[in-house]
Amino acid sequence: MLETWKEFAKKTFEAKVKKDRKGDEYVAAEARAAYITADPFTIYVQLEKNGQNTAFNAWFDVGAYFLNSRENPESAREAADVLRQFYYEVRRNAIGDELKQAEDQLKSQESAQKKLERDNEALYKSIEDYKAKIKKAEEDIQKNTKEQETSIVNMEAQKKKIEEIKVRIKNVENERQ
Predict the structure, then answer these.
(1) Measured in whole angstroms, how far is the alpha carbon of residue 161 from the centre of its chain?
(2) pTM of the predicted model, to two decimals?
């Protein structure tokens, strides 16, 4: 709220807001607004926090007195209207902050959604990769099975050859005769 007041005071009253070091007040000296008074004046503001709420108290020092509805009703009404405009500015800023938070949350949700989509694509790609690996493994199994069958036939032939050689060894003596 303080930043909003500083901007509002500068735009509306051509005054710079400074913190009063002695108290909890903010002072806008040399403020100007012809609808309040022809001479420069000072605005004192005090902000009181109460939980999430903040009370905004303003006093307009127009020189000989603080602006009030008894001594200067027209200027007091104008000051009240200006403060109402400030209230609207504070509300717009508060709603703007709420909008920014909602937009930031949406942006975060959109980022999370994009990550989920990327993860989903990666999972589908993994499935396709695994399917290709399974297909290759099935082909390798068929190839291996054929190789095993060939190997068994070759082993049987080799066993037969070994048996023939053993028979020939036994028959060596018979060959001499």
Answers:
(1) 78
(2) 0.62
